[in-house]
Amino acid sequence: MYRYIIKRILFLIPTVLGVVLIIYFVMNITPGDPARAMLGSSAPQADIDKLNHELGYDLPFIQKYINYIYNMIVKQDFGISYFTKQSVFAEIWPRYVVTIKLALMGVVLSSIIGIPLGIYAAVKQYSLWDTVPSIFAFLIAAVPSFVLGMILLFIFSLKLNLLPSYGISSFSCYIMPALTISIPPAAMNLRFTKSSMLESIRQDFVRTARAKGAPENIVIWKHALKNAMLPIITNIGLNLGMLIAGAVVAEKLFSIPGIGSLIVDRITYKDEPVIIAGTILIAICFTIVMLLVDVIYAYIDPRIKAKYAKMKG
Amino acid sequence: MNELILDIDNLSVIYKTDLEIVKAVNGISLKIGKGKTLGLVGETGAGKTTTALSILRLLPENTGKVTSGSIKFEGDDLLDMDEHNMRQIRGGQIAMVFQDPMTSLNPVMTVGDQIAEAIIMHNEGISKEEIEKRVDEKLTMVGILPSRKIDYPHQFSGGMKQRVVIAMALACEPKLLIADEPTTALDVTIQAQVLMMIKELRNRLGTSMLMITHDLGVVAKTCDDVAVMYAGEIVEAGTVYDIFLGENHHPYTEGLFGSIPNLASRTKRLNSIPGLMPDPTNLPEGCVFAPRCKYCMDICTKVHPNTITEGTHSLLCHLFTDKLCGKAGGKNGK
Amino acid sequence: MSKRLVAIVLVVLMVAGLISGCSGKPVTQENNQTPEERTLKLRVSDSVPSLDWEQSTSLRAVKVWHQMFEGLYGMDEAKGGYYKELAKDVSLSDDQLEYTITLQDGVKFQNGEDLKASDVVFSYKRAMKNPRFNYVTSMIEDVAEIDDSTVKVTLKTPFSAIDHTFFSIKIVSEKEVLEQGDKFGTIPHKAGTGPYYVTEYNVATNIKLSAFEDYWRGAPAVKKVEYRVISDDAAAIIAFENNELDYLEDAPLTDWEALLSASGDNNSLTKGNDVLFLGVNYLSPTNNNILANDKVRQAIFYAVNKKDMNSAACNGYGVETPYYMPPEYVATSPKDGFETYEYNKDKAKQLLAEAGYPDGVDVGTILTYGANTGDKAKMAQVLQANLADVGITAEVSVMDSAVVLPRLYDQDYDICIYADSNNFDFNNIRQMVHSESVGMYIVKYKDGPFNWKRLEELVDLGVSTSDIEERVGYYTELWSIVMDSATLLPCLSKPVPTVWASDLEIGTPVPSFYKIRTFSWK
């Protein structure tokens, strides 16, 4: 089992190398350059070229790639942002933490809302408990998250004056963004949970549990749910991974300094060091989340654990 | 007369969907004496499992409905009981072993935990050591090493899984064990082992049993009484001697015995009962077996036969109305 | 097993709650604070990349820096024109090449040091090394210290638009800048002479300023200022309506009605300095050089309905303008004496027919940049419709500025919509017409069929004298040549909407360079 985990972690290395290469390649073929973005539309070309040269932007991209990898591994130096001239790591890390907080909150909320509703919908199939949440889930899955965010802003900030509309200065600032990013995945969780549970409830061992005299809630929560968890957990893991990168919309709307909005903003300035460092962080995070999901699989389903143990490193 | 542990009277069960009504069980009556084993024989679709599920009230919520009759367990009608008491009974007083051991066990729980669960549910406040002790006991009882209680179901073979299921069912030493084709999914040698084990346990613990099977061999080995079921009705019932050695038989029973292949003779074709069991949504008028019966008479397709009883042997057939009616003043009617 | 699941969930919740809760401070209640303690909250639409004024010419950042730094000259948009700020007296030599500047008395930097001529020299030399400010420093030969309070600026050639240079170059404390070294701009500093200094600088979220009590004009009334980064316009409006922002300038025009009702009396829609105009590339090879035909270009100009453009791009709040720079803000901008191409559909059709295309013609693509829903994109669509009205067909293409601007500067387009701003001296037209401004102009006049040599002469003449009347004369002729060529057409002057809190007093609202030191709480 441990060998399996270590093997997966080692896979991170080619992943990171690949990510950096792809970004340099893409930056290379897209138009625009940092000097133009920084000096403005009216600066003369000579100055643009000079600044690009100073920043090291005009080197061939393979050269930049090798320099970057070298700096990263040997000197643990992620470079200086083209845009703010500040250390990339110092700029990125606090924003990364903010996004992680937000993404975690989003995932937890979406699970708390989606999974129990999904279970109810499965258990009470065809009743109101099933049809109403399911219809709701379809509706909400169709609504874009920024629309949701604006509605929340409108109601809770403007009309009710309960929550602040921007920033991260207090815990209450996180509530609306967390809700915004958690509601669409909650709808997905609901549907996944429902279908997984429906399958699970029909299994023979559930009937066995009832025949043993188990009360209904133990039958559902202990027997049926545990067997239904596998697809649900995959979904949650994917969700977390996507949220870390994709909470951009909520970040922009609620002026939350997260890593998604950082990368998006810096793309306009072609601020390569920041974009790359940010993307690497996200890639690492995603990989670790997927690894965690697989490890949790092993804990839930002993048949999978047996399979991992059998795999020779 | 022996005390009855289970007395089913005129039980009818239907499955109701939006499209149709399936008449699964139509007015059957069964009696199981204390410490006795009743074999419920019939082919697939006869309604045997439905009967078993009805006893424990495990019919599917939305569709299964008991439309008439009573199921008395030690005098109390199970159909009238509230859910809370019913749960005490399930697993504690009446336990069930299902057909397919491969899927009957929860794959993500250890065997030990699953057996322990049964014990915990019916023994409040029992100590951990006591639970472990009992689990070990039950496993040994079915011939599995107690050290294997930390293993998961997928680590056992089919036969051993079924033994675990049996251990689970007998964990609380129930008074009545319902075994729904417990050996059908196993190969013959294992079958013999498991049957022997069941018999031995039953003798040791004094458990009454309802053995559902389609295999007459199993019936011969394990049962005291037999009931033959066809299309939701009991067409013949009696002691095992009545059924195997008795004079008169329902044409269906005849057909069943006739289909058993004979090792001694060489034949090219197997004997079978021509035709198929009727569609339970559309049962024929009169006798349900009439379409396939070689003794079919005019009256058979029009009038539903009454039960004719001769001592311990009862038959549901027009053939015997005259013969037996005159004799020992058998009971008529339902 | 399910207990473990519950436990895991609770742990995750707890951890999440702890992490987020621990770092927070409670949202402060502003209502019962005294004017001394109250923080003025403003918005910036994107991060301010540095605290060093040399790092950008983006107006967004300049507005913030104006609270911290000052130059020899200041700008008064309300009354128009430049005024002397850190310069007490300015005298010009007879050959118009030497400016002798006496500095104001009693000016201190925020770090306590006195303002000395050496700081001015340091600041100018530093700026002259920065290519970004070439356009205002390239004419300076030398800046020298005469004594502690006198500076001499020597030019290469007479340049009357030097006011703009004196305004643009901000004076920084030599000591502070050298002390901070490479870090200058990335951390809070006290290097300016302005009424506010930075106490907290978080690039991604906010900048906090505190009043400089020893400011040479006297301590400002508003003591604390905070700029928050709110990139989404809708969120900014909600923040203002929610009293989380006290002053919102450059508010989105589309929500002007809502802002009007939220701000009561405290709103203004001032004419700004941003001009949206049309550019036609007479060198375009499209459709057999169709745009080289003078009459076709004139037809295009006559077909433009500026009123429609105003409705689409500025919700009707803009001002239709024939001027490249608004004469209200730019004293040297010509007011009349040039062709203005008033909307005239019939004349357009007639010109088209004269050109040989009575049934219309295809002129290629209207290229512009910005958001697909932005003002320039809308103008492009209106233009397309206006042209279709007279039989001219054109496509619209809207792309990212990083893609479009290089093409414009390379004359790789047919027709374009462009925005220009921050022009306070008409000399800035140099960027648009002079052949040396390669990479800055949209239309290349050099070697063209127009009197481009005279254009360049006039540019130089414009700065050869400081007499405003004379300069306006030169620029009128210049602009007349440009308009006759039918290559650039100013269309709209964008308005700058501003709203502010009911208990805030701001004096006369100005479009760009508001001064917080003139604000006060009621």
Strands, helices and their partners?
The complex is a heterotrimer of chains A (about 325), B (about 325) and C (about 525).
Chain A: H1 2-10, H2 12-29, H3 34-39, H4 45-55, H5 61-74, H6 88-123, H7 128-142, H8 145-159, H9 172-201, H10 204-211, H11 216-246, H12 248-253, H13 259-268, H14 272-300, H15 302-310
Helix pairs in contact in A: 2-5, 2-14, 6-7, 6-9, 6-11, 6-14, 7-9, 8-9, 9-11, 10-11, 11-14, 13-14, 14-15
Chain B: E1 4-16, E2 21-33, E3 37-41, H1 48-56, E4 64-73, E5 76-77, H2 83-89, E6 94-97, H3 101-104, H4 111-122, H5 128-141, H6 158-170, E7 176-180, H7 188-205, E8 208-213, H8 216-222, E9 225-230, E10 233-239, H9 240-245, H10 251-259, E11 307-310, E12 313-316, H11 321-326
Helix pairs in contact in B: 4-5, 4-6, 6-7
Chain C: H1 2-22, E1 39-44, H2 59-65, E2 73-75, E3 82-84, E4 87-92, E5 98-103, H3 117-128, H4 134-137, E6 140-147, E7 150-155, H5 162-168, H6 174-180, E8 196-202, E9 206-211, E10 224-229, H7 233-241, E11 247-249, H8 256-263, E12 267-280, H9 286-289, H10 294-303, H11 306-314, E13 319-320, H12 345-355, E14 361-369, H13 375-389, E15 392-399, H14 401-409, E16 415-420, H15 430-433, H16 452-464, H17 468-484, E17 488-500, E18 504-505, E19 520-521
Parallel strand pairs in C: 1-10, 14-15, 14-16
Antiparallel strand pairs in C: 2-3, 4-5, 5-7, 6-7, 8-9, 9-10, 11-17, 12-16, 12-17, 13-17, 18-19
Give a structural overview.
The complex is a heterotrimer of chains A (313), B (334) and C (522). Chain A is mainly alpha-helical. In chain A, 79% of the residues lie in helices and 0% in strands. The longest helix of chain A has 36 residues, at 88-123. Chain B is built from 11 helices and 12 strands. In chain B, the strands form 2 sheets. An 8-stranded mixed beta sheet of chain B has the order 6-7-8-3-9-10-12-11, sandwiched between helices. Chain B has a 4-stranded antiparallel beta sheet with strand order 2-1-4-5, with helices on one face. The longest helix of chain B is centred in the middle third of the chain and has 18 residues, at 188-205. Residues 325-334 of chain B have low confidence and may be disordered. Chain C is an alpha+beta fold and 522 residues long. Chain C has 3 domains: 39-49 and 197-271 and 497-521, Periplasmic binding protein-like II (D-Maltodextrin-Binding Protein, domain 2), CATH 3.40.190.10; 72-178, Dipeptide-binding Protein, Domain 1 (Dipeptide-binding Protein, domain 1); 274-493, Roll (Dipeptide-binding Protein, domain 3), CATH 3.10.105.10. Chain C has 17 helices and 19 strands. Chain C has helices at 2-22, 59-65, 117-128, 134-137, 162-168, 174-180, 233-241, 256-263, 286-289, 294-303, 306-314, 345-355, 375-389, 401-409, 430-433, 452-464, 468-484, and strands at residues 39-44, 73-75, 82-84, 87-92, 98-103, 140-147, 150-155, 196-202, 206-211, 224-229, 247-249, 267-280, 319-320, 361-369, 392-399, 415-420, 488-500, 504-505, 520-521. In chain C, strands 11, 12, 13, 14, 15, 16 and 17 form a 7-stranded mixed beta sheet that branches. In chain C, strands 1-10-9-8 form a 4-stranded mixed beta sheet, covered by helices on one side. The model of chain C is unreliable at 20-30 (pLDDT under 50). Classes of the chains: A mainly alpha (313), B alpha/beta (334), C alpha+beta (522). Chains in contact: A-B, A-C. At the A-C interface, helix 3, helix 4, helix 6, helix 8 and helix 9 of A face helix 1, helix 7 and helix 14 of C.
